[in-house]
Amino acid sequence: MLAVVASSFAQDTRQVAEPKIPPSCKVLHAELTAIDNKLAEEEESKSDTERLQSALNDCKPGMAVELRPATERFTFLARITRKPVVERNAFLTAPIKLREGVTLLIDKGVTLYGSRNPKDYETTPGLCGIITDEAGGGCRPLISVENAKNAAIMGDGIIDGRGDAELFGYDYSWWRMARAATLGNRHYNSTRLIVANHADGFILYRITLHNAPNYHVGVVNTNGFTAWDVHIQTPTVIGTDARNTDGIDPGSSTNITIAHSWIDNGDDNIAIKTGVTHMSVLDNHFYNGHGMSIGSDTYSGDSNLLVDGLTLDHTTSGIRIKSNNSRGGIVKDLLYRNICMRNVQVPISISPFYDNKTIDAFVDPNIQGDRIPTYKRITLRNITALTPGDVLIAGKDAAHLTAVTLDNVNILGIKPEQVHAQFANITMGPHGANFTPAGNGVTVTAAAVVVAGAKPAAGTANPKPASGAAAGTANTKPARAASSAAPAAPYGCDGKFLPMQ
Predict the structure, then answer these.
(1) Catalytic (active site) residue 231
(2) Could you read off the pLDDT of 414-443 as tens digits, one per residue?
(3) CA 256 – CA 12 distance, rounded (Å)
(4) For the chain, what are the domain ranges?
């Protein structure tokens, strides 16, 4: 029998607090005007790139380059009524780079727009903004943080990548290009909104991100990344096809916290790529999107993840781990707790069957390869889905069993035919689940539960509580095996679902 305890290491090892906005070294006032979230055609050539980059280059570490709106009053009537005739509320930029210790501060009322010209982003002439038969390359991100520590993007303003806008020189947008490439089973070269590489201490705070052409935020090779009160909404025009617009995607990094954020986008809300350890996802809200994901690349491993206090409202998947034999590795030591969902098609998907679809297949597609996914020590505790949906818990084969603990997991209204499982060792925690997985190679075991006064078996040690574990997850008194999980009221979701902010 296995005792149900939370790993003290399943989280960011830093003590993360709400960031603070630094003083400004330079204030830049907007010179462009956006009306209904669009720039006039004559303003598309008035780039702010040079003055933005110059200010960032000249700013001292620990300070911010601040982007402010500006108003102009031209008439006597305007001066009397104090009503602005013209409001300058926009900046337009080609790719820019953040510098070490410097913050880009975007004030409320300001939008920083990305250029619609693919030539501004190209790394090789002619390769950005096109469909191609070769994968990778072609475009720089709009904002990059490269080999720069403690950089940040903050403020109550907006960064808009304009993935929906027609590109200069072409009859399509970034997004229409992406969809056309998918339909033709080809590759395409697109820009991303923000990419941080070797950017220890990088922070996103209070910023709103709209309409990324591709991923909104990618962070790699970084120790210490914080996203706090970040608002991602893509597309801003409901019904627009915004393919592959992931929210926040960390990879090959450690000590990550994403907290108090709101993500509504066209692909994974969060997608943890390969090589991530010690990550906390705390008190976030997800809307449109593909859920709280790990994968699909996991070949160098992912471990020590805490997801606590998450709501998912009409995402396609909820808790999702996805990989296959061509890109898998060991994913282990994950704790998901205090999670509410509604109108989620697949509340739980732990799958080695990924085949590039929005929803993973419930049977093995037999993708070939020797990078076989292995999922170990995954705990789901206090999980409630208010509407029925499918559950998939699967390992690849008997040599690669998936190990999951379910403790107070309730998918309300779920039917037996919606539960899919194979090659999995499933431990029912003290409060179990309202469904029982079954299938080829599946074992379901009751957890050890703590009973006051019970004596340990000869030769066994008393269990010790895990540091930082939730109250009631461990006890210093000895345990005995439970014959079955004790039912409990589903984790409460009243007041948890809030409008997108």
Answers:
(1) no
(2) 999 999 999 999 999 999 999 999 999 999
(3) 6
(4) 24-481
CA-CA distance, 191 to 104, in Å (whole number)?
A: 20
Number of neighbours of residue 166 by Cβ within 10 angstroms: 13
Sign of CA dihedral 272, 350, 267, 357: positive
State how beta strands 448-450 and 479-481 pair.
Answer: antiparallel
Supply the pTM of this predicted model.
0.90
Report the candidate in 279, 283, 273 with the shortest Cα–Cα distance to residue 255.
279
Q: Residue 324 class from Cβ within 10 Å (0-12 exposed, 13-18 middle, 19+ buried)? A: buried
Per-residue pLDDT tens for 308-363? 999 999 999 999 999 999 999 999 999 999 999 999 999 999 999 999 999 999 99
CA distance 430 to 76: 74
Would you tell me how many other CB atoms lie within 10 Å of the CB of residue 155? 24
CATH number for the domain whose boundaries are 24-481: 2.160.20.10
Residue at token pair 């705070």: 205
What single string gives the DSSP state of each residue in 37-66? TEE-GGGTT---HHHHHHHHHHPPTT-EEE
Q: Which of 267, 308, 333, 390 is catalytic?
A: 267
Could you confirm whether 260 is annotated as catalytic? no
CB 294 within 8 A of CB 270: no
DSSP letter at 363 equals S
**Which of the residues 290, 400, 420, 431 is marked catalytic?**
290
List Cβ neighbours of 309 (8 Å cut-off, separation of 6 or more).
282, 283, 284, 338, 339
